[in-house]
Design a protein that fits this description.
Length: 187
């Protein structure tokens, strides 16, 4: 996985602080050293109920959600952006990550256990995508997104329109999202 390279002219800490102080992020759960896995999983379930997240509806519309994991060495210290991800079912994904913090199965478990030990407080937040892009995206965001995604949409469209017998989409990929948006029931 490629790592982000810092750019001198960007104040990353200010950007994160602004984001955390806005209504563009919603806290999913807060993880402290003394929390049990069950307590954290209950926080995630509660968030899902309060936000009325319908995973099946999201899956049918192929609308992903974005999360950010923030760490603090203690509750009062400076926040650090540790990880960002997107998924059709962010609650399921975050629950799996939380379970990894409490298991000893693999490299991913070690990664999350190390984070839990290093930071006295971890917070998963959901990013409200439309509000974030409205505030922070470049002016020609629609053209940029089109340029980034047009080949996936074209691939799915030609496969659908020609009933390609051997074409298949990657389960979490853009071609899958494009395919489901092409289907008559989703137009």
């Amino acid at each position: 996985m490629a790592k982000i390279k810092p750019i001198k002219d960007i104040d990353f800490q200010k950007n994160l602080n602004d984001l955390l102080g806005s209504d563009i992020l919603k806290e999913i759960c807060k993880i402290k050293c003394e929390n049990t896995a069950e307590e954290i999983l209950n926080q995630i379930d509660e968030y899902g109920k309060n936000e009325n997240i319908d995973v099946e509806e999201s899956n049918n519309k192929q609308s992903g959600r974005v999360w950010i994991l923030v760490g603090r060495e203690n509750i009062d210290l400076v926040p650090i952006s540790l990880q960002v991800g997107q998924s059709l079912d962010i609650l399921k994904e975050i629950k799996l990550d939380v379970k990894e913090m409490f298991s000893e199965n693999n490299e991913k478990s070690l990664f999350y256990r190390d984070l839990k030990e290093k930071y006295g407080c971890l917070e998963f937040h959901e990013l409200l995508i439309d509000q974030y892009l409205e505030k922070y995206a470049c002016e020609n965001v629609k053209e940029v997104v089109y340029e980034m995604a047009k080949e996936f949409y074209a691939e799915a469209l030609v496969a659908y329109n020609t009933y390609s017998r051997n074409w298949g989409f990657y389960n979490s990929g853009m071609d899958k999202r494009a395919y489901f948006r092409i289907l008559p029931d989703n137009k």
